Amino acid sequence: MKLNNEQKVMSVVLRKCWEDEAFKNNLINSDNPIAIIEELTNSIIKLPRGSKFVVVDQTKSGEVHINIPFRPDHSDMELRVDELELVTGGSSGLNEFKFMKIPRFECIES
C-alpha cells in the first residue's frame, strides 16, 4: 500500500515522538505545532479555513482513547460518473465501490 503525503508526514512525526520525549513534549505544549511538524518533515501543512491543529498525548498505557471525528456534510457532494454508474446498476460488482475520503488537512512537499 502506497502512503499519501499526509500519511508519510504523520508517520515521521509519530516515530519522532516515540523516540524523542523532549520533541513529543514540545509538540504537545506548543502554540504552533504545525510549525514544528513542517520543520521536521520539510512539508507545508494546509488546514481547512477555520480549523485548528490539536496534538494530544495518548501514549499512556492503561488508557483507551476514542477520537470522535467531525460529522461530514454530504449535502452538496456529487458522485463522479463512474461512481454514479455503480449505484445505478451499471457495474457488475459492489466490491468496486470506493468510499470518498474527506481530507482533514493537506501536506505539500516543499
Features:
mainly alpha; two-stranded antiparallel sheet; 110 residues; 4 helices; elongated
Explain the layout of strands and helices:
Blueprint: H1 5-19, H2 21-29, H3 33-41, E1 43-46, H4 81-87, E2 106-109
Antiparallel strand pairs: 1-2
Helix pairs in contact: 1-2
Describe this structure in words.
With 110 residues, the chain is mainly alpha-helical. It has a domain at 1-54 and 104-110. 36% of the residues lie in helices and 7% in strands. It is built from 4 helices and 2 strands, in the order H-H-H-E-H-E. The protein has a two-stranded antiparallel ribbon with strand order 1-2. It starts with a helix and ends with a strand. The model is unreliable at 93-102 (pLDDT under 50).
- Judged by helices, strands and strand pairing, the structural class is mainly alpha
The helix content, as a percent range, equals 25-40%
Query: What form results from the Cα inertia axes?
Result: elongated
Number of helices: 4
Low-pLDDT windows of residues: 93-102
End-to-end distance: 23 Å
Widest sheet: strand order?
1-2
Strand percentage lies at 5-15%
Please tell me how large the radius of gyration is: 18 Å
DSSP, total strands: 2
Mean pLDDT equals 79
User: Major beta sheet, specifics?
Assistant: 2 strands, antiparallel
Q: What oligomeric state do these chains adopt?
A: single chain
Order of helices and strands: HHHEHE
